[in-house]
Amino acid sequence: MVNTILKEADLFCPNSVRINFTIYHNNNQVTLSFAGVSDAQTLFNPTSHAYFNLSDSNQILDQTLQIHAQEFLELDTQKIPTGQFNNVLATPFDFTHPQQLGSAITALKNTPEKGIDDLFHVKPQEDYEIAILRDPKTKRKIRICSNRNGLVVFTANSFTNQLPFKRGNGQPHMGIALEPQTLPKSPDYQEIQLAANISQQYCIRYQYSAE
Fold first, then answer.
1. Could you tell me if 51 and 176 are in contact, meaning their C-beta atoms sit under 8 angstroms apart?
2. pTM for this one?
3. What is d(CA 18, CA 201) in angstroms, rounded to the nearest whole number?
4. Nearest to residue 173, comparing CAs of 154, 201, 151, 191?
5. How confident is the model at residue 8 (pLDDT cuts 50, 70, 90)?
6. Distance from C-alpha of 151 to C-alpha of 69, rounded to nearest angstrom
């Protein structure tokens, strides 16, 4: 458990936020709990920027991803939400069924991102599952569960050999970040406002298995 207070100088806004961050580990399951309370209205949309690579190789291209999402959020050229949603059907963002990440990344190679760096509008299942990452070769799998309605997917498009890792120097598509969060549908971010002196808690669960 970690307790911290982020003050004005940390947040670049006129308030302080007390955050309680707890990690629970049970067998092959990890749950992240975020609780926050502020002395004035502010934004609160915590998540985890952990990267996953379930294979024994240095890239994620052969792994498959399934997301319970029919839409992804439209962003402008500065990656700011426009408030509009686009249907995933017939696009590289269609992960309604397991799709190989390499196929999606190849289809996006001529975009500025050269891969995925997008926010999906997810609909959690009964057990709060929102996405499944799987490596067909090793049979390793991670289920991502959350009751929140957004999932940022980033396929490490900008990684370079200037980034040192245990596996060696960085390279594009070395891992994938899967970040559950609340959808900020518009530039005023009303959906992620935290009222003064009102506590808000969120949880993310990652469940690992090997078939």
1. yes
2. 0.91
3. 12
4. 154
5. low
6. 9
pLDDT tens figures, 82-108: 889 999 999 999 999 999 999 999 999
What 3-state DSSP class applies to 58? coil
DSSP state of 190: G
CA atoms of 182 and 94, how far apart (whole Å) = 20
Residues 120/113, Cβ–Cβ less than 8 Å = no
Residue the block writes with tokens 């997008």: 118
Task: Say if residues 13 and 44 touch (Cβ distance below 8 Å).
Answer: no
Q: What is the CA radius of gyration of the chain?
A: 18
Average pLDDT over residues 181-201: 87
- Token pair 């939400």 is found at 81
Residues designated as active site:
49, 179
Reported as a pLDDT band with limits 50, 70 and 90, residue 77 is confident
CB 192 within 8 A of CB 198: no
Which residues neighbour 2 within 8 Å (Cβ) at sequence distance 6 or greater? 19, 20, 21, 22
- In angstroms, how far is CA 211 from the centroid of its own chain? 24
